[in-house]
Specification:
371 residues, single chain, 19% helix
Length: 371
Amino acid sequence: MNRLIFIPILFIVMAAISCNNKKDPHAEHKSVSVPDIYTCPMHPEIVRDKPGNCPICGMALVKKEKGGQKSANIELVSLLKPTNEFVISSIPVTAIEKKEQQLEIEALGNIAYDTRQIGSISSRVAGRIEKLYVRNRFQKISKGQRILDIYSPELMTAQQNLLFLLKNNPANTTFLQAAKERLLLLGISTQQVQQIIQSGKPSLTIAVYSNYSGHIHEAAGNNSMNTTPGKMNDISLITEELSLKEGMYLQKGQSIFTVYDPARAWAILNIYGENQNLVKTGNSVRVVPETAPDRDFSAKIDFIEPFYRKESKTLTARVYFNNSVLKIPIGSQVRATIFGNNKEAYWLPKDAVVSLGLDKVVFKKQKAALQ
C-alpha cells in the first residue's frame, strides 16, 4: 500500500523540477517594457514621457539611455586624480629637419597716398578770386586744368609796364625782357604773356592752372577738415563744398590747394613685435587687397619707419607701387606676405604644432623608461 502511493508522489515532484529548469524561449519578449523617458540636458529635473522642449530654457528634450550597467571596479584614487595628468591625442609623427628655409611673414595694412607726390597750388600774388572752377573736395583734376581766375593790382601794374615799354621804347630789349620775366615770376604763363602783347591791352584777370593731376584738397588752414593722406573722413565732410568762394582775397604766397595723386600710392604694412627683426628693406612682398583679391601685386619693402606711430605698437613698413593700372582705392585694407631672408634652423611642419590658445606646444615621442 505504501509502495504504490510513493511512486505517483515521486513522479509529481520530478515533473515539477523539470518544469522549473526548462527555459521559456519567449521569456525575454515577455519581460515588462520600460517606457521611454525624455529629459533636458541643462535641467535634469524636467522629465517627460514624450519628445518636446524644455519649459525652462526651450532646448529639445533628449531621450534618456536605458540598459546601462553599474561599474563596480572604479577606485576612488582614479576619481581624485587631476585631469591634466592625462593627454589623449592622435597627432601624426614627423621628424624634425635642419635645413635652410625662406621665412614668410604675414602682415596687414592699408593703401595710402604717396606723400612724396603731393603737389601744392599757391597764389604768387595778392588778389581777389573772380572765378572758381573747382567746387568740391576730392574733385579729380588734370595737369593744365584751369583752377581759378584772379584779379591782382600787382599783375595789372606789371602788364601795363610791359605794354608801355612796347609802345614807347620797343628797342630797349633789356627792359622788355625784364618786364616779361617779372610777369612770368608772378605766375603768368608764356602763352598768356604773348596774348597780352598781341592784344595790346592788360587782362583784368589772370587764370591759374594746375601743374598736377589727382584729387584736390584744401590746403591746411583753409578749412577745419583733417585731410590726412590715406585716411577717409566723414562722407558729409568729403562731399561738401570747398570753403574758398568767389570774391575772397588771397595773400601772396598763400597755399590754396594740395593735390594728391592716386596713381602713385604706397601700402603701409604693420609688422608685429615677434617679426620685426626678420623684416629688412629690400625684402620681396606679395600684397593682396581684401576688396579686390584679383589685383594682387609683387613689390619690395622700400622703407621701414624708425619709430612707432601714435597709439600703435607695430613697426610700419612702406611699399611704393604704381597704382595707375591697378586703381586700388585709397584706404583699402590689404594682406601681405613678406618673404624674408633664408635661415638655417630646425624646422617642423605647421601641422605638428598644437595651439592651446595663447600657447603653442609640440609633443615629443620617446620610449617609456623601464621600471
